[in-house]
Amino acid sequence: MRIMLAVVALFLGIGMAHAKEQRQDCNQRAEGKAGTERNRVIAACIRHNASVSNMPPMLARMTECNRQAGDMTGEARVKFVDGCLKQP
Questions:
Q1: Residue 37 vs residues 31, 32, 33, 34: alpha-carbon distances, Å
Q2: Do 43 and 75 fall within a single domain?
Q3: Whether residues 83 and 45 fall in one domain
Q4: Residue 46, Cβ neighbours under 10 Å: how many?
Q5: Domain containing residue 68
Q6: Residues 43 and 76 grouped into a single domain
Q7: Smaller CB count within 10 Å for the chain: N or C?
Q8: Do residues 44 and 63 both lie within one domain?
Q9: Measured between alpha carbons, how far is 11 from 3 in angstroms, rounded to an integer?
Q10: How far apart are CA 16 and CA 20, in angstroms?
Q11: Integer Cα distance of 72 and 76 in angstroms
Q12: Residue 15: what are its φ and ψ, rounded to 5°?
């Protein structure tokens, strides 16, 4: 149990450090801009950082399956995403 908690804490720490680096990068790109222009630059940077190519494979797969599920809801969505994730 202690090992599992240590592993979870390690991954959370790594994820938080990575998120901090991404925020710093986006803020640096938006330097010198104000208002709507700054918001646009930061939003584009965040979308770029969250692109599927930058994600771990399983998270990228989950993102793609959710995108394909579209407006599905309830049990139909759950079944679709489950089947999508099981495909090679």
A1: 11, 10, 6, 6
A2: no
A3: no
A4: 13
A5: 55-88
A6: no
A7: C
A8: no
A9: 12
A10: 6
A11: 7
A12: -60, -40
41 shares its domain with 69: no
Q: Are 32 and 63 part of one and the same domain?
A: no
| CA neighbor of 87 nearest in space, from 53, 64, 54, 55 | 64
What's the one-letter identity of residue 29?
Answer: R
The model's pLDDT over 20-42, given as tens digits with 9 standing for 90+, comes to 777 888 888 888 999 999 989 88
DSSP line for 36-50? HHHHHHHHHHHHHHT
Measured between alpha carbons, how far is 30 from 57 in angstroms, rounded to an integer? 29
What pTM was computed for the model?
0.41
Same-domain pairing of 11 and 39:
yes
Count of structural domains, the chain: 2
